Amino acid sequence: MQKKTKQSSLKIVKPNAEKHTHSVHQPTGFEANWLDGIRVNLSAVERRCATIMGRRTVKKEWQVAWMLKAISCIDLTTLSGDDTEGRVRRLCAKAKNPLRDDIAAFYGVENLGLTTGAVCVYHTMVPTAVKALLGTNVPVAAVSTGFPAGLSPFRTRLAEIKASVKAGAGEIDIVITRGHVLKGNWKALYDEVVAFRDACGEAHLKTIIATGELGNLTNVAKAALVCMMAGADFVKTSTGMESKNANLAVSLAMIRMIREYEIYTGVKIGFKPAGGIKTAKDAISYLVLMKEELGDAWLSPDLFRFGASSLLTDIERQLEYHMTGRYSADNRHAMA
Question: How high does pLDDT run on average in the chain?
Fold first, then answer.
């Protein structure tokens, strides 16, 4: 008989009673003075990030628990020009049942209702995803507002949001106008995101600030804070299509702003790193960062998500390795 891995004290998944346990965030007003003192020291950020996994080594059953937690926080994503309804349906099937039955049984999690945090698609695939996820608590997230460049006409961007919400998307991932940040026009950025927030209605809003295109970490921090003022439920690093995507340094700059915003307002804002997060080791690094910087409350899909397409495959491979002592081929963990 196979011996199941000992249960760790880390809560693996939250109950799936609701898609979100908090209501949508509303704008708090533009506070220009909050931005005045923001300066990000790149060397200090890099030193802090270098300590994350060096001081916090996670092994054996604890590593398994962290990987299972990571699964529950994945926005399982397909954003390709060759997306089809069949691919989206298969992705939704994986979101509903992210682990092979034998792996789930080995770790004793087959009855936990483990799912990914959401499924993220283009607007045209929203109806297909909504239908495929009917009867579950896995929300559909739609990228919007001229994703990934965000340079389509403003009315078109608003119409995209409203159309996706009408089609059943519970979450909207918007992209900001990077020019507002590069020119320091923070009020214009605030007004833009407020309009997007209004167009979302009861859907949760994730603002993608495209960190790799903002010039420096001070701009990253200020852009994240302005988006929170404007009603963002999550701030997200990247579209996944820039030359530079999520990393621990830009994540730390944004996370510190989430902490500051909670001090100012008492409101918890979510965080979503996206682009280039492909391994279980990467995922654990981000989870450790969230725990150390923001606390256990952010170890939940309500407040933390990974934007990823291949991460789940590596996590499942690592879990099988812990189970069998050998690595399997990727095709044993097909995604779509």
Answer: 90
Q: Residue length, the chain?
A: 336
- Note the pTM of the prediction, 2 decimals: 0.91
Cα distance between residue 239 and residue 207, in whole Å: 10
- 135 contacts 147 by C-beta, under 8 angstroms: no
Phi, psi of 118 (to 5 degrees): -170, 175
pLDDT of 255-300, one tens digit each? 999 999 999 999 999 999 999 899 999 999 999 999 999 999 999 9
Which amino acid, residue 16?
N
66 by Cβ neighbours in 10 Å (0-12 / 13-18 / 19+) ranks as buried
Residue 120 corresponds to which tokens in the numbers above?
């993220």
Using alpha carbons, list the distances in angstroms from residue 310 to 108, 313, 336: 24, 6, 10
User: Catalytic residues, which ones?
Assistant: 173, 236, 272
Q: CA-CA distance, 197 to 232, in Å (whole number)?
A: 7
d(Cα 25, Cα 236) in Å, to the nearest integer? 15
CA distance readout (Å), 303 to 21, 33, 127, 187: 10, 26, 25, 26
3-class SS of residue 140: strand
Cα angle 126-127-128, degrees, rounded to a multiple of 5: 90
Q: Which residue has the tokens 């979503």?
A: 272
- Tell me, what's the pLDDT at 5? 39
Which residue segments constitute the domains of the chain, with CATH numbers given?
33-324 (3.20.20.70)
The count of other CB atoms within 10 Å of the CB of residue 37 is 6
How far is 260 from 193, CA to CA, in rounded Å?
19
3-state DSSP assignment of residue 103: helix
